[in-house]
Design a protein that fits this description.
Number of domains: 2
Structural class: alpha+beta
Number of helices: 4
Strand content: 25-35%
Shape: elongated
Helix content: 40-55%
Order of helices and strands: HEHHEEEEEEHE
CATH class of the largest domain: Mainly Beta
Mean pLDDT: 83
Number of strands: 8
CATH topology of the largest domain: PH-domain like
Distance between the termini: 18 Å
Amino acid sequence: MLFYEELIKKIDGNIEAQGRERFFLEANKTLIWLGTGIPFFIIGLIELYISTLSETPSTKNMIFGIVLLFIGFRHIKMYFSYHIILDFNKNSLISKGINVSFSNIKSCTLKEQSLGKRNRLQTVLDIITKDKKQIIIPLMMTKKVKFLNLLKSKLGKSFVIKER
């Protein structure tokens, strides 16, 4: 994990952009989401199975099992849904539900911002499109430096690094 200042120093934009580049979740987030998601899912299944086997099924146990299944499924879904693709053949950035053409990007700002329920400071990419849509991408991925260098080389002056 790189600190913001170290990350900024490594961005130079001198990289050849070609083909498709895929970026996935970093190892510690993978461990957290799968390490909690799979056990919750399994415990929820076991809880539902045991509560249905008993002669008088308890609604408390069934609800508890359903809640654990839901939490486990949500963590597993989050793991599998986080991926970002830079497609230089089609000149677009693709993520879950987002397909933005590089020519449609008005500005792309790298900055630190508070995100989530805990308001933890994270490095994010703030993209503003020409039709005034704002897309915030948290950089929780492997190969952050390569991702940012590819974007900087492709976007040129539209890519801005915000200092602290």
